[in-house]
Prior knowledge:
It is built from 17 helices and twelve strands. It has helices at residues 16-31, 43-46, 49-65, 67-80, 88-94, 96-105, 115-126, 160-168, 193-199, 221-228, 245-254, 271-277, 287-296, 309-319, 332-341, 343-356, 361-383, and strands at 5-11, 36-42, 109-112, 134-137, 154-157, 176-178, 208-212, 236-240, 261-265, 280-283, 300-302, 323-325.
Amino acid sequence: MTPKRRVCILTLSVGSGHVRASEVIQRTLCDGPDPVEAKLADVLESARPWFHWLYVEPYWWMLRHAPGLWRTLFERRQQKRHRGTAPDWVFRHGCRQLLRQIKDYAPHLVVATEIGAAEIAALGRREGYFNAPVLAVQTDFETEPPWVQPEIDLYCVASEEARRQLIGWGVLSNRVLLSGIPVDPAFALPFDRSELKQALGLDPHRPVVLVMGGGMGPAPLDRIVEQLGRCDVPMQVLAVAGYDREVLQRLEALRGRVALDLHPFGWTDNVPELMGVADLLITKPGGLTAAEALVAGLPMVLTHPIPGPEERHVRFLEQKGVAQEADRLSDLPQLVSRLLASSHELEAMRRRAREWSRPDAAHSVAQAALALLEKATYIDLLATPPPHAGESAYLM
Length: 396
């Protein structure tokens, strides 16, 4: 029986998208026909407390209180082509326990789904914590210079734009695979919208708007819903607050106070069904959420992007004709009313979304991972000394 090959999937949970992508990759590898054991490791679960305060908290603080400062730092990192989000010593000492755990696990492949996790993977290989190939999987439609690490063997990217950027920064073209962002295959299922509306207790004749805020720097869902109450088109709103109980309570308090049929949700695993029943998605433009919407063929209205990467997502998605931006909350009523009243425009956005989607991205990433595992196995065999005279190689 062929022994299982061990894969360590590294992520850093500064947002929920990286974690969701990692979980999809893990399931795809483990559910496939090849004998693979995939372990998911979140950097923050074992990092020293000071690493969290030094590396993560300043990012969160800037997003909440000084977004312009974060935008300036992000753009400078792009222009100066910084090759690190932090000095090596921050990862070396702040994540030492994780590096030791990777060493003990002795993976045959390391997959990194977040930029800091990719830097840690590169450092771990460079400093001898493991000797296995590294696969970097990106969940943004454009990329950043710190992803470029000589220890990374292959990149799976979300767009041709990201591919060109990496090649322009010196990565060999044969090391960059245009895979798309790995999303749950359930988002591509052909749901029966009439049955979904009935199951969710929705009016079959009124449009459905799905509102989501993202796992990092969430959009103000309650204020968005209040603006939707000013729309000219009667609608049903599904608002997903995720783990944010305070936001969920504010949404619950709006029921009966706004002129629309409001259905608040906390954390739910039924997002594919919610996207399947919706006519329009209002969301913060995180890479994974946008990729899920593309696969679901769901038109988007984008609001409250994180300065830097998500502002680039807005430009990317608008250029593809699958989304429109609401610069201000006060723009929502007119924009949403116009889109819901124009079935032709919505259908064109749906069609373009499906054209630009990559529903098989998780399978493409898994195939890339298996190819690296096969290459690593072949190299291991070449490096294995031959058996002694009279000893069968099959007994080694």
